[in-house]
Every structure is written in C-alpha cells, then in structure tokens.
Amino acid sequence: MSAIFGLIRANGSPAADSLAAMSGAMRHWGGDGGGEWCLDGAGFGQSQQAVTAEALLERQPLVDKDEVFIAAARLDNRAELRRELAIPGDITLPDSELMHHAWRRWGEACLAHFVGDWAIAVWNRHSKRLFIARDHGGNTDLLYYHAPGLFAFSSGLLGLFALPEIPRRPDPMKVAQTLVVWFGPEPEATVFQGIRRLMPGHWLSFEAGQLNISRYWHPEQLPELILPDDTAYEEAFLEVYNTAVAACLHSTRPIAATLSGGLDSGSVCALAARQLAARGQRLRAYTAVPQYLPTGASAKRRGNEWELAQATAVHSGYIDLTAIRAENLSLMDSLERTLTIVNTPQHTASNLHWILAILDAAQALGAGVLLTGQNGNATVSRSGESSLQPCLVRGDWRGVCQALRDMSVNPWQALKWQVIKPLALPLLHQWRSRQGHNSAHPPWAEYSAIHPAFAKQLKLQEKIRASGHDPTFTRDNPTLRTRFRTVGLGAGGLWYTIGAAYKLEVRDPTLDRRVIEFCWKVPNRQYCRGGERRWLLRRALRPFMPDAVLDDRRKGLQAADIGHRVVAQQAEIVALLDQLQKHPVAGAWLDIPRMRAVLASLSQEVTAKNTTQAGTILLRGIGMGLFLQRFA
C-alpha cells in the first residue's frame, strides 16, 4: 500500500527541504516509486508500493494548472467507476488517475463513488485550499498536525516526525485512556500532543489557516433492507461478501491469510480459497498456536485454535495451513519492534509476538497481500444480541419478551448482565466513593496498569462517568457500538502501518464499504433468533465451512499461553520494571507495584486469572512504559 504526505507553510517560506525530509522518512513505505511536488510554501508527495498491475503505472503527484492531486489507494470498483466516468475499457489507468477523473467530475461528491482502501489530498493552487479525505472502512491511516503557520499531514507518524517544528510529547489523557481501554470523546486524538487522526469516513479542508472537518459517510441512516425470506438474505449476503473477498485477491504477488478457529477469518479464507482455486491457485494461511499450555482457556474460550482452523482448511481443500508458535520471538522483542514501526503503544500487547511471526512468514513467502477478518465481529458475524435496556426505558414489554426469546442466553442471565449488574455497579462505586475507597478500588483495577495518583490527577473517573462510558463493560453502549461498526476504531490503521514495514498490503474484506453498508441494513433478527447468534453467517457459509466450526459456540482466546511466556522471560521483565520505576514519566504514570504483583503471581502459579492480567496489566503496561521511556 502506498503513502501520501504534505505540508503548507502560511508565510510562504520554501517547503522543499521539509518535504524532502518527509519523503525520506516515508521511503520505507515505497520501493516502487513515488514523487514530490513543491512550490513556495506548499509541498506534497507520494511513496509507492506496487502490489497490483495498475499500481506499477502510478506517477504521482498529478499536477495540472489548477490542482495537485495525490492518492494512496487501491480501488475495488474500478470497472464500475470507469463506466460512470465513460472511460473506455482499452485505456489502462492507475487508481490515482481514475480518482482524479472522479474528482474533476464530481468534486467532493466523488467520495461516494469510491470503494476500497484509500486516502487522497487535493491542493488548489489558486484558492490555496487543501482537501484531504480517508476511506470508509478505515484500512488506511492519515494523521495531521496544525499549529500557527504550519499544517502537515502524513499516512504515518514518521512523516510528521521528520519536521522539527512538530513536538514529540505524550498526551497524558490519551495515555490514560489507552491504559483503561476508554476511547474517549475524541477518538481522533493520538498519544502525541497536537497530532490527530482523520477518522474513516471523514474529510478535512484547510484554507486561510482554518480547519473544517466533516463526516461524509452515514451508514446508520441507510433504510432497513426488506427481503422476502431468510433464504433471500443469505443469498444477498453471500453475493456482497464474495464480491468483497474477490476484490481483495487482486494482486501480482502471492496471497496469504490469517486463519483462526472462528467464523471471521475462517469465512474469509473459505471464500478466498474457493475463488483462488478457480484460477488454479492455493491459499497459504497461518494459524497462531500456543507454545505452552494454554492456561487462559476455559470451557467457553478456546486456547488452541489449530484443530478448528485445520478443519476449515481440510473442508476447503485449497488451503495450505501453517502453525505459527512464535517460539523465536520474545515478548519484549515484539513490543520493541512494534513500537519502532508504529511509534505508539498497542492495546493488544499480548498478541504482538504472533502477529509479527505471521508477518515474518508471509514476507518470507514473498506474499504481497495478507488477508484478515479483523473486523468481522462488527459486520459479517454480528451477534445481533438484543439489548433489553431500550425496551425497558420505553416500557415496551412486548419488545422485552421478543428480545429475551432471541437471546442466546437464558432470561435470568440476560436480566443479570443487562439490568441488575449495570444498575448495581454504579451504586457500589458511589458507596465506595463515599467510604473513601474510590481511589483504592477504581472500576479498572482488575485490568489496568494506570497509577492511581495519575488517574486522580487527571480526574479520570469523573470524566469517564460524565462521558457515559462504562468502565465495567457491562452496560450497553450505543455510541461506542455505532462508532465501532462504522469506523472500526483504528484496527485497520495498525495493520496498514505494520504491513507497510513488511512490504505487505493487509486487506480485510469484512471492512469493505459494501459489506458494512449491507450488514447495517439487515434487520437484527437475521443475526439473532431463537437463541442463535451470528445466525446469518452460520446459515450462509454452511456449504463452505465445516459444521465443527460453524456450530462451535466457544470464543477463541488469543495468546492463551501468555502467562507461561511471561514466566519464561521473568528476569528480563524484572530488569525492565526496575528501569521503568526509576523513569520520571513511566514511574509516575504506571502502577509498577501492581505490575510486579502480577508477575509475582505468575511466578507462583499460572492461572486463568493472572494469564488475563499478564496481557491487560503487565504487558500493556510494559508496552506503554517502553513508549514513555522515550520522553524525559
């Protein structure tokens, strides 16, 4: 996948040297070309990585007398767009030129015509107006910085860090939000002060020193899809899903995939392998398996997904499956390597070792594409689990009864988790607060390494309460659910950045715009009925996936052996905690004694509870500590 970058200096001072610095910092994104354009105080560039035949034709920036146009893009609807633009089929154009034609025809309305992973920037040379926009599903990234006299943007942080005027200071509130798993009221904020992210489905304009940001995509406003029967929904779903998967198979280099024992990556691989087989090709897939005993597993959580992943591969007949144990990649090395690539601490710190090991394997294969089903839970495998709370608030008892019938848990469990616990926990927290126990037992105590004094200094609990966020994760959160379903909350951006370091395009058909819109429009009862969850996907994929996978009701537990991996590196972790304790920022913002207590517990006996805490408290805290060590 390619990258774009650029800057504007308000005083018109030459930007050539700064643009060259940005280009150098983003060069790792390319290797297959790119270019820059600069005039007076404005400069724009693109770094090209070619995975498709069309990408080899890219020659950017595109410059005419009026505008400068750049794009980091892979269009998935090239044929449809050509027809709309009346461009003859015998003319071969790279994606950037198709998008530029669309911009010249429709202006900002062209965004509604694009399907794929993309980001664009357009500079009007006369009005001095910059317009940038990002794709619908969020499989790219676009960051920006604005201060008096300077506006800069880049597909990666390194492009911005190339400019000495942009400070590298951690944002205390965003650090805290990362540690307590609260996305906050400003998901566009990053862990760096002043650097923000253009969210998926949004555009930004910059003119005369003023920023204007707008959301252009509103799938929640789409009307409900009404079809005659269940079979019609299955057929329509398969058509859309197969189309999205087919688009992700467009590549001049081999295609690899991640494959778990679940429905999301399993369905992607099943459909992809079937389509590749029609070309006489096979799909190479990778499954992360535990190196040690998966102590974190339980009756409801699978600790080793190999058996079910293998069942999917065998049922397909066209998947070559490789087990990834990541035995040669230590936890500390994986945290350090990921931080070097993406420059930000990661929520999924306990999974980085196997993610990097899969990327290593795909790169060794010479793959150009890695398929995932990362966001399937929000789209193709939506549980459709009904919420009782809206019906209770409205006094809709018929709706309550229908929701209870459709739920996959018994009525008592539903009442306990959706009504009793959400009502009781806030009362408990209020009581603790009045008793003076609030700081000693905050609601995130069991899963966060944040220092209590740091949280108190930020008035974190008060801000969380005011925002409506539930730190116990037991209440229904329509705002978070809606945001996740529409923008994915950044998972695609992580894969985009880390994939570029491995010269791979990481593609996720479950985040295809057409898939998101279709899944949004489908009535909830197609996803959950009579106690059956993820019902639409289970029905539609029945011919292509084994019953053992489709009928399994357990969830996969990634890195279920993480507790044993931690114990194996105990000496190294103790030494690092000693360093973090002495660091002026990390020692003040992280609860090092709490992290030490988790490590001590693991050294005594690895259990399901402290295995979870190894990921949520210890490793997430260490990842943040390694990040904070960069700052005095």
Using the CA coordinates, give the radius of gyration. Answer: 25 Å
How many domains, in number, for the residues?
A: 4
The name of the CATH topology of the largest domain is: Rossmann fold
The CA-CA distance between the termini, in Å, is 35 Å
Global mean pLDDT: 90
Q: Helical amount among residues, as a percent range?
A: 40-55%
Strand-residue fraction?
15-25%
Helix/sheet category: alpha/beta
Number of strands: 19
Largest beta-sheet details: 6 strands, antiparallel
| Low-pLDDT segments | 478-489
CATH class placement of the largest domain: Alpha Beta
CATH superfamily of the largest domain: HUPs
CATH 2nd-level architecture of the largest domain: 3-Layer(aba) Sandwich
Discrete helix count? 25
Identify the overall geometry: globular
Order of strands across the main sheet: 2-3-1-9-8-10
Question: TL;DR?
Answer:
This protein is α/β, with parallel strands linked by helices and 632 residues long.
Notes on the protein architecture:
- The chain has 632 residues and is α/β, with parallel strands linked by helices.
- It has 4 domains: 3-171 and 189-217, Aminohydrolase, N-terminal nucleophile (Ntn) domain (Glutamine Phosphoribosylpyrophosphate, subunit 1, domain 1, 4-Layer Sandwich), CATH 3.60.20; 221-382 and 496-555, HUPs (Rossmann fold, 3-Layer(aba) Sandwich); 388-438; 562-628.
- Helices cover 42% and strands 15% of the residues.
- The chain contains 25 helices and 19 strands.
- The radius of gyration is 25 Å and the shape is globular.
